[in-house]
Amino acid sequence: xxxxxxxxxxxxxxxxxxxxxxxxxxxxxxxxxxxxxxxxxxxxxxxxxxxxxxxxxxxxxxxxxxxxxxxxxxxxxxxxxxxxxxxxxxxxxxxxxxxxxxxxxxxxxxxxxxxxxxxxxxxxxxxxxxxxxxxxxxxxxxxxxxxxxxxxxxxxxxxxxxxxxxxxxxxxxxxxxxxxxxxxxxxxxxxxxxxxxxxxxxxxxxxxxxxxxxxxxxxxxxxxxxxxxxxxxxxxxxxxxxxxxxxxxxxxxxxxxxxxxxxxxxxxxxxxxxxxxxxxxxxxxxxxxxxxxxxxxxxxxxxxxxxxxxxxxxxxxxxxxxx
Length: 323
What we know:
mainly beta; 14-stranded antiparallel beta barrel; 17 strands
């Protein structure tokens, strides 16, 4: 008997919480595009490989004193100055829309998920925002039986495999954020679906999708005008697995480059680094050193993320609401 989560995991979740929580859709004042690739437990034949592409953007001309499509406030001065946190005020009500494509391959299992997302952001106090989001799409699961070995080559289970069907997928999320902290809760895969085997027997119960619940929080601390540090944590609840968590720490220098470390319970330690090359492009990399028993056969995990900031009116070099 083997139990495992059914969704990919990410070391650099703090760079793209949009993957885990649809309420993050449209949180920044530009169109946020990201491409990512993760090779987990490299060196093991059939180890998980994940790739994703995401895009999300705000809609609302009053967002942050005039969004990227509106008129410049304060005589053209950017609201994101060094006094950003002290002068911070909750964002004007606005909408966010987005789209994501995630592919994941682990051994004989191929999974593809496509989803459109929507969020509504509202200032509930003078300095605190609350966003509510939903993602809706479809999931395609494929089991490559040519890579499997059966005791009986004519096993009846082969007659009931559903290997080329798209099935509906739904997720929900809440996200609260201010100038220097955020907190979010979300649920993915909340529509139960049968995977692979479709029969009327009780054995089909072991092939059901299960909801994945995430709770995350982070705080931004300024050590000086130029240096900030962001500790964050991610809790994951996936029945019947035991609850687990990730802890990340990211230190940023003038919003130009950053480095950090991570820890995933009973799995790995990681190092992370990234550069905001310009107001258009940023790139980051993470390496996980495996601490589980797989460390004897694994060369660790690699994760690369490329970010593109489109329609970036204020020429920001990094995120201001998601960090």
